[in-house]
Structures are given as structure tokens and as C-alpha cells.
Amino acid sequence: MKVVANTRSAQGSGASRRLRRSGKAPGILYGGNGTPTQIEIDHNPLYHSLRVEAFHSSILDMELDGKAEPVLLRSVQWHPYKPQVLHIDFQRVAADQKIHMKVPLHYKNQEISPAVKLSAALISFVSTDIEVICLPKDLPSFIEVDLSTLEANKSLHIREIPFPEGVAPALRPKENPVIVTASIAVIEEEKPAEGAAPAAAGKGAPAAKAAAKPAAKK
Questions:
Q1: Alpha carbon distances (Å) from 210 to 202, 207, 213, 215
Q2: What is d(CA 49, CA 186) in angstroms, rounded to the nearest whole number?
Q3: pTM of the full structure
Q4: What dihedral do alpha carbons 197, 199, 204, 209 form, nearest 10°?
Q5: What is the CA radius of gyration of the chain?
Q6: How many helices (H) and strands (E) does the chain have?
Q7: Mean residue pLDDT across the chain
Q8: What mean pLDDT is predicted for residues 23-44?
Q9: Which terminus of the chain, N or C, has less C-beta within 10 A?
Q10: C-beta neighbour count of 40 within 10 angstroms
């Protein structure tokens, strides 16, 4: 995906406000062998690009002042209540240096898994993305997770799924987080309220004893 940007010389909060009023978003490009560069980007194309999942997890082609270079989106600051980008950060990418990047998890086949088909289990997605380590050329847009063999009351851990060649999860040696679970809902019987009298056996409660008749007058 492509991003068109230009360098900007004016800095500070006042300059940024004027830039936003003119329909542009301020940002910065850093990393690599270059110095941090203050940039500006047309807001509307940027806003629509940010709505695309791959824009957040792919190597982007930034055309800066007519010169192209690969970059990664690193952070976006949004207006508290308007659909407006206040600031955006990009990082330069070197082809021979590994990168850390969060990529989305795409789950599939949960509807045909034994957990759902045989046990009507509830599938809970614990994680929707995972941080990976790889060279820029190997960065996937997403990681696919096949749930077709998931069984009821079982969990799937991140190290149990296959990763593309050259891609590894960014985990500590013994770390292996759960990413999805399949559980069967347990329905508990309703208990009588504390202190309530137990229901009488038989078809109905026994009739109360009749009141004693007054003695007959002589």
C-alpha cells in the first residue's frame, strides 16, 4: 500500500492546528539510517487507508517528496470524538534488519469443529493479534488459525499453530499464551430461597384442621 507525504518545516502545536485546518495530518518518520523527519499527509486518503486492516500490518511504500522508501505504521493519535487523525508515526524499514510487528489472527472453521458440532461449545477468542519477528520481506498481512480440530473444554495456544516460513512469535522462552478456548456452558438448577418451606408431597398440601365447634347450649 502507498502513502504520499511531504516534509514540513513548521513545527509546534500552533503549526499543527493550522495544518489540520488545511486538510492535512502532521506526522513523523523515524528509524533506519535517516534522521527523524517531520511530515504532512493529506488527511482524507490517510483516514480511508487507516480503515484497511492491512495498512496496520504491512510494509508500506511511502513516497516522501517524490522519493520512495519502505515504512511501517507505528502509532496513530486520534481526536477524542471526531474522525480526525491528530498525529501519525511511521518507521523506516531496512531489508536486512528483523522487525517486531503485530499482525491480526484470522480464525476459520470453528463452525465445523467437534467443539461446536458435537458439543455446542462456546468459542472464545482470547487474542485477535500476535506480535511476530521476521525480516520485512517475510511479514505476513495476517496469521490464519484453523479451528477445525478444536474439541470442547480445550484451549489452543500460540505455539500450537503454524507460522509462515521466516516468521516466529515474539515470545519469551517459556511463554505460550492461550489464544482461543472452547467451553460448554453449565446450567445450574435453581435453588429454593433460604428459609422457604419445602413443597409438600402429593397433589396438594394437607387441609388445615377444622376449628373446634363450640359446645352446644343446654
A1: 21, 8, 9, 15
A2: 44
A3: 0.75
A4: -30
A5: 31
A6: 3, 13
A7: 87
A8: 90
A9: C
A10: 19
